[in-house]
């Protein structure tokens, strides 16, 4: 069964916006502690500890990148960077605990990486800041 075009046209912006919102929340957890997070990741920037610096940078990328994906601004560029971040997160944090994502708790990193690669190929789409700017 094929979905009507108007539904298909609405699902891509929905995927982009929900992905951006969820990713922003992950960043906010790291930076401020909202959404049951620990917060304080920015304090790791000056620590010199590689893990703490990586967590701070991940929080910044997730917070800002999530917002940009949510509103559809520079989606291709941002999604490419975030796909890379998720690939690194998987290989650095999850892969050492086993290959399969369901066994090493890396399924979310893999899923986000795949979605960001899809967003990279499609761009911002309708109902985005980029579309509004292009239409003047």
How is the topology of this model organized?
Layout: H1 5-31, H2 50-71, H3 75-94, H4 101-104, H5 107-122, H6 129-134
Helix pairs in contact: 1-2, 2-3, 3-5
Plain-language structure description:
- The chain has 136 residues and is mostly helical.
- It has one domain.
- It contains six helices and no strands.
- The radius of gyration is 16 Å and the shape is globular.
- The N and C termini lie far apart (37 Å).
Brief overview, please?
The protein is an all-alpha fold and 136 residues long. It has helices at residues 5-31, 50-71, 75-94, 101-104, 107-122, 129-134.
Number of strands: 0
SSE order, one letter for each helix or strand? HHHHHH
What is the end-to-end distance? Answer: 37 Å
Category by helix and strand content: mainly alpha
Query: How much is the radius of gyration in Å?
Result: 16 Å
Low-confidence stretches: none
Biggest beta-sheet profile: none
Number of domains: 1
Helix content: 55-70%
User: What is the overall silhouette?
Assistant: globular
Q: Beta-strand percentage?
A: under 5%
Q: Determine the mean pLDDT.
A: 89
Give me the number of helical elements: 6
Jot down its keywords:
136 residues, mainly alpha, globular
């Amino acid at each position: 069964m094929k979905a009507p075009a108007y539904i298909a046209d609405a699902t891509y912006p929905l995927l982009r916006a929900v992905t951006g919102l969820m990713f922003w929340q992950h960043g906010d957890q790291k930076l401020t502690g909202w959404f049951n997070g620990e917060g304080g990741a920015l304090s790791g920037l000056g620590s010199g500890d590689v893990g703490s610096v990586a967590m701070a940078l991940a929080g910044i990328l997730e917070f800002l990148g999530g917002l940009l994906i949510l509103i559809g601004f520079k989606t291709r560029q941002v999604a490419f960077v975030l796909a890379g971040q998720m690939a690194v997160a998987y290989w650095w944090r999850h892969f050492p605990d086993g290959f399969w994502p369901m066994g090493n708790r890396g399924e979310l990193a893999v899923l986000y990486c795949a979605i960001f690669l899809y967003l990279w190929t499609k761009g911002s789409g309708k109902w985005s800041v980029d579309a509004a700017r292009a239409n003047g």
